[in-house]
Amino acid sequence: MTNPVLVTGATGNVGAEVVKALHKAGQPVRAAVRDVAKAEGHFGEGVEYVQFDFKRPTTFEAAFKDVKRLFLMRPPDISNAQRDILPAIEAAKRAGVEQIVFLSLLGVENNKIVPHHKIEELLRASGLKWTFLRASFFMQNLDTTQCLDIQEDNNIFVPAGRGKTSFIDVRDIGAVAALALTQSGHANKAYDLTGSEALDYYQVAEIFSDVLGRRVRYSHPSAMRFFWQWWRVRKTSLAFSLVMTLLYVTVALGRAGKISPQLAQLLGRPPLTIRQYVEDYKQVWE
């Protein structure tokens, strides 16, 4: 029997698309989740579930058993990679994992502040085969972290200034991850994954307004106001609020607009557009 691919963050935006793409390709999948009882049935028949928590090493052995390939995602609440990610990488290697496909960030090689940079360093030093998917900003941030602002206030509330973003649909990331996890030729390679267009949030708001049939605005708050809103008002962790604020500041500084042809080259088709995304998900904001 073919060894299962372990997918961490399996019920999250990206992880779920990786699971779906692997399952569609006929690859056995083991979905790593914190609460198996809550997650079971999420993907229907044919997907195995296992308890896994980066901060609980006792969950590692069962999760990594018979696994040769692993999809790694950094949980949003983890910022100390040396303390909270490295033990899992070491345990995976001891268990016989051979390749780790890691969801990283576009431009991470020049951004030592974000945790993803350190995780890439740890994987390079691990002796395992690695593949880095350096993705641009997810379109699906707009139906998760930014959903209520759009749904209830018709407002895109991010401190991105007039910076442009080469948004990517997580469905495309899932498709590329499945390729890297099931086909040869992707070991020790880093892929820049972006959409085919770079838009500022004023343009995104126009697309939302057109598709949803109501005016959606971009209020471009300051970085401090955004941070305060998420940390003090919405009560997210300090680390999460800081990382998210810093990521949007990189957009304002003009560092998120790079367009790469690699996704189209890998999939043999153009990336999904943000208009297509809004049309496909429009019921979320209605």
Concise summary:
The protein has helices at residues 13-24, 36-39, 60-64, 81-84, 86-95, 115-126, 147-153, 170-182, 201-212, 223-233, 238-252, 262-267, 274-281; strands at residues 5-7, 29-33, 47-51, 69-72, 99-105, 129-135, 155-156, 189-193, 217-218.
Please tell me about this protein's structure.
- The protein has 286 residues and is of the alpha/beta class.
- It has 13 helices and nine strands.
- The protein has helices spanning 13-24, 36-39, 60-64, 81-84, 86-95, 115-126, 147-153, 170-182, 201-212, 223-233, 238-252, 262-267, 274-281; strands at residues 5-7, 29-33, 47-51, 69-72, 99-105, 129-135, 155-156, 189-193, 217-218.
- The strands form two sheets. The chain has a seven-stranded parallel sheet with strand order 3-2-1-4-5-6-8, sandwiched between helices. A two-stranded parallel ribbon has the order 7-9.
- The termini are far apart.
- The model has no long low-confidence stretch (mean pLDDT 95).
Compute the separation of the termini in Å: 45 Å
Strand percentage lies at 5-15%
Given helix and strand content, the structural type is alpha/beta
Largest sheet: 7 strands, parallel
Structure summary, number of beta strands: 9
Overall shape: it is: globular
Provide the low-confidence segments as ranges.
none
Q: Level of helix content?
A: 40-55%
Order of helices and strands: EHEHEHEHHEHEHEHEHEHHHH
Number of helices: 13
- What is the strand arrangement across the widest sheet? 3-2-1-4-5-6-8
Q: How large is the radius of gyration?
A: 19 Å
Mean pLDDT: 95
